[in-house]
Structure formats: structure tokens, C-alpha cells
Amino acid sequence: MPVVAFDENYDAPMSAFVGCDGAYGIALAVKHLCEYNHKRIAFFGGSPGALVSVERKRSFITAMRDEGREVLPELIAESNFSQNFAPSIIPDFVACGATAIVCASDLLASYAVAELERLGLRIPRDISVVGFDNVPLSEEIDPPLTTVDQNLVEIGKSTFFLFERLLEGVSISKMQFKPKLIVRGSTAPVK
């Protein structure tokens, strides 16, 4: 049976991967924050065992180094994508002087924003936040979330295309889209 996996590797003869270039997307987010002169940038990651989490965390570390920024272990934390661990993570980021947070998903970013507001911080005046996915939630957050758009519509269409090719016996391993950064109100120059 052919399988097309989204953001996960599936090791089978008739399988393919479809997703976006997460490393490029995280690099866009870090570069954007560095252009705003942020130096103490935190990373709020998702489920440690998930392929996208591993890739996004590794990409964050690489992008920070590429931008000449110090990677501080106390500014890197992982939780999971479906539960709100922000109350146990975000206060530590703030205590360690983070001026910006790159989140591995828009849902994590929404948790971070809610916790920052609970702590009395204003976004982006006091701290900037960037998400990843560009799901509808990203525009509903106040202020609207700067996020990495992985073009989910095209990924969805391509999933069906890949599945049809696999059914025809065409061997395909991977299709990856290049994301883009959508700048909205949750990021600003460091004060």
C-alpha cells in the first residue's frame, strides 16, 4: 500500500515524504529577529521525538551560530505540540533575559503569547514572538503572529499528486517546499 507521509519519514518501499524545508524556515525567523537586533533569542520546541521538532531545534542552533549569536542552553526548551507547557517554560526564558522567542509551531506560539501576557509583558514591545505554520490561529492572536508559512495548501495538493505517482509505480522519496516568513505585529526591534 503506498504511503505519503507529511513531516515524518516512513520507511517502506512505496512511500514518499512531503513537507517544507523547516531548516530554511527557522533560519528566516532567526535572521528576521537578528535584523531587529535581538541577541538573546529563545527556542520553544515541540515533541522531542518528532522529526520536525528535531529538525527545527537543530536548525535554530545552526541559524543562531550563522548569525553570530550565542546559543544559550537555558534559552532552549521542548515540550510537545498538543499540551500547554508554556507556564513551566516561558517564565524561565524571561528570567534569563530573552528578548525574542522562536516557536516550533503557531500553537506553541499562542501558548507563549498567553503566558507572556499573564506575566505582564507586552508583545512586541517587551518581547517578540515568531511562530511556524501560518495556520488561521496566527492571525487571530493579538497582536497577529509573525510566522513561517509552509504553504499547507500546496503541500496538501502535492500529497495527492505523490500518492497517484506511487500508485502508478513511480518511485519518489521526497518533495519539499520552501517556506516564507510572514511578518505581522508580534515582532519589533529590541528596545
Description:
The protein is of the alpha/beta class and 191 residues long. It is 38% helix and 20% strand. The protein contains 6 helices and 9 strands. The strands form 2 sheets. It has a 6-stranded mixed sheet, with helices on both faces. Strands 1-2-8 form a 3-stranded parallel sheet, with helices on one face. α4 links the parallel β5 and β6. α1 packs parallel to α2 and α3 packs across α4. The model has no long low-confidence stretch (mean pLDDT 92).
Let me know the largest β-sheet.
6 strands, mixed
Order of helices and strands: EEHEHEHEHEHEHEE
Question: Could you tell me the mean pLDDT?
Answer: 92
List low-pLDDT spans.
Answer: none
The multimeric state of the shown protein is single chain
| Cross-sheet strand order for the largest sheet | 4-3-5-6-7-9
Inertia-based shape: elongated
Q: What's the gyration radius in Å?
A: 17 Å
Please tally the helical runs, counting DSSP H or I stretches of 4 or more residues: 6
Structural class: alpha/beta
Beta-strand content estimate: 15-25%
Q: What is this structure's SSE topology?
A:
Elements: E1 3-6, E2 15-20, H1 22-35, E3 41-45, H2 51-66, E4 76-78, H3 86-95, E5 100-103, H4 106-118, E6 128-133, H5 137-140, E7 146-149, H6 152-167, E8 174-177, E9 180-182
Helix pairs in contact: 1-2, 3-4
